[in-house]
Write a structure and sequence with these properties.
DoxX-like_oxidoreductase, globular
């Protein structure tokens, strides 16, 4: 039974992961100034460039991942981006005590998302992906 669900589940998995990234990319475009300000508030250099990179990864690579084009590379880029976001924006070890729990939860969620993305790096996008269509 599980083998017959492999391709639809792979597609649903890509869809659910993309729901996290694609709307966030659009949100960063709509709120570009706020995004730049938030990045700057974390002390990161070149916040405008960081915001552009975040938009390109979340929206651009997120859409590639959703449709299953270069799925392994897209998943790897998203996993690395998610790990970096966790380290820089959910650094629970360096926040006031009242923020520790929420930032720790978000940090570990980022680790879990990256772990799920690494499964796509290992196994690809499945038969319901552009990768599979372009291969045949």
């Amino acid at each position: 039974m599980l083998n017959s669900l492999q391709n639809p589940l792979s597609f649903i998995g890509r869809l659910l992961v993309a729901i996290l990234f694609v709307p966030a990319g659009f949100g960063k475009i709509a709120g570009f100034t706020g995004t730049v300000g938030y990045i700057a508030s974390k002390g990161l250099p070149l916040p405008q460039l960081g915001a552009v990179i975040a938009i390109l990864v979340e929206l651009g690579v997120g859409l590639l991942f959703l449709v299953g084009f270069k799925t392994r590379w897209s998943a790897l880029a998203l996993a690395l981006f998610t790990l970096a976001a966790g380290l820089f924006f959910h650094n629970y070890w360096a926040v006031p005590a009242e923020q520790v729990m929420m930032q720790q939860i978000n940090f570990y969620k980022n680790l879990a998302i990256a772990g799920g993305l690494l499964s796509f790096v290992a196994w690809g996008g499945g038969a319901w992906s552009l990768d599979a269509r372009l291969k045949s």
